[in-house]
Amino acid sequence: MKIRTGDLVVVISGEDSGPAPRRVVQVIDGGRKLQVEGVHQVKKHVRRGHPKSPQGGQLEIDLPIDSSNVLFYCGQCARGVRLGVKYNDDGGKVRYCRKCQTDVGTIGAPKPHRRASVSN
Q1: Residue 95: how many CB atoms within 10 A of its CB?
Q2: Nearest by Cα to 72 from 43, 102, 40
Q3: Interval 68-91: pLDDT, tens
Q4: Helix (H/G/I), strand (E/B), else coil: 70
Q5: Alpha-carbon torsion (16, 22, 25, 26), positive or negative
Q6: What is the DSSP letter of 8?
Q7: Which pTM does this prediction carry?
Q8: pLDDT per residue over 81-119, tens digit each?
Q9: What pLDDT does residue 107 have?
Q10: Element (DSSP H or E) covering residue 44
Q11: How many Cβ atoms sit within 10 Å of the Cβ of residue 73?
């Protein structure tokens, strides 16, 4: 999956959709689900003595949403865009905005070039 934890995304479908960018808190199930700040919030009632709320009451919890419902937010384009992957000259993978072609971040370290095997 091209979207990672900490990226800004725009929710494009669902009740919480809108042009405002939001931060990805967690990537779940290999990138199929994303937990996004302030999106798909539910209230959970907890008893006294719960670790997150010792006095009890209601907790606001963000549930995961499907990754197909979000687009990466490009700061240069100021909108949701699709991401692509390309290789640098040194062999490292880089994510880039498909609209303005700017690099977003690296995916992996440069890999050594493979030599063509010589057969006898």
Answers
A1: 18
A2: 102
A3: 999 999 999 999 999 999 988 888
A4: strand
A5: positive
A6: E
A7: 0.78
A8: 999 999 888 888 899 999 999 988 888 777 766 555 555
A9: 81
A10: strand 41-46
A11: 20
